[in-house]
């Protein structure tokens, strides 16, 4: 007699948003990407992805920005499930349902996070038992930010951002994110960055020792001083309204104001939650952004919450 292995009928995975504390962009490569040296940092704004067995792949989306998210093969979560099934000869299919809190097209890797969560959820649903490096390889095929979303916490990304090494970071930082309803497309921000740097000799990107040392000691002022984004001037060039928002935040007590990834979300780093709440009030009254979200650093990446 053989024992029946109970198969999961529902898996729920939670996955965080990211901000790039540092984003150094090298020259344009022949494959259309840029070499990066970037420090990813996860914050506790979470999307939740649920997978259940179904006859076909499908995606449904509720929550923040739901009307802006595709529900067909254009959705990275759909592609994640399909690629995993193809690579490991899985004949089963699943319905993917996403509850969004991460801003869409906001430079916080929301789509990449959903893809990472789907890989972890399907791995569990289908009982594949994949190793970390196997999931990371597939994640890298899906997009440059997807491997980080698996890992979470704080990590250095090199290559096109997909080669991830965890960074020793202590302390929990307080953030206020200012959101703009109109998104920026990542390729157009990189293209604008190339245009602005035309004729310049762009060096190979290097992470700064100052940031890594400040993260090790949990020194929020050192982190604020070292934060940097090479895509910021491109995002500001495409969306000049971000500049007065950032200036006002700095005048009103933010330790640092930085465009998150390719934008247009602006990340303000604050001394504590009290300062973040006070800054939100001032910026809300100023009407310079469409919405605001508080967040703290999180050590988590894509995490299984429920298996039924
Ligand atoms: O990897 P992902 O699909 O998220 O990248 C989206 C686009 O962003 C790429 O097609 C490319 O235009 C740009 N990109 C880049 N260099 C990187 C990452 C992304 O130029 N390292």
TrEMBL record:
Entry's Gene Ontology BP terms: isopentenyl diphosphate biosynthetic process, methylerythritol 4-phosphate pathway; terpenoid biosynthetic process
Keyword Kinase tagged: yes
Record's keyword annotation contains Membrane: no
Domain GHMP kinase C-terminal: start-end pairs: 212-284
Pathway: Isoprenoid biosynthesis; isopentenyl diphosphate biosynthesis via DXP pathway; isopentenyl diphosphate from 1-deoxy-D-xylulose 5-phosphate: step 3/6
InterPro entries: GHMP_kinase_C_dom, GHMP_kinase_C_sf, GHMP_kinase_N_dom, IspE, Ribosomal_Su5_D2-typ_SF, Ribsml_uS5_D2-typ_fold_subgr
Residue ranges of every copy of the GHMP kinase N-terminal domain listed in the record: 75-153
Primary enzyme class: transferase
Catalytic residues as annotated in Swiss-Prot or TrEMBL: 18, 145
Keyword terms, alphabetized: ATP-binding, Isoprene biosynthesis, Kinase, Nucleotide-binding, Transferase
Enzyme Commission number: 2.7.1.148
GO molecular function: 4-(cytidine 5'-diphospho)-2-C-methyl-D-erythritol kinase activity; ATP binding
Residues bound to ATP: 103-113
Superkingdom as given in the UniProt entry: Bacteria
A Pfam short name: GHMP_kinases_C
Catalyses which reaction(s): 4-CDP-2-C-methyl-D-erythritol + ATP = 4-CDP-2-C-methyl-D-erythritol 2-phosphate + ADP + H(+)
PANTHER family (UniProt xref): 4-DIPHOSPHOCYTIDYL-2-C-METHYL-D-ERYTHRITOL KINASE, CHLOROPLASTIC (PTHR43527)
NCBIfam families: ispE, PRK03188.1
Stated role: Catalyzes the phosphorylation of the position 2 hydroxy group of 4-diphosphocytidyl-2C-methyl-D-erythritol.
HAMAP family: IspE
Identification of the protein by name: 4-diphosphocytidyl-2-C-methyl-D-erythritol kinase
Organism annotation: Dermacoccus abyssi
Record lineage: Bacteria, Bacillati, Actinomycetota, Actinomycetes, Micrococcales
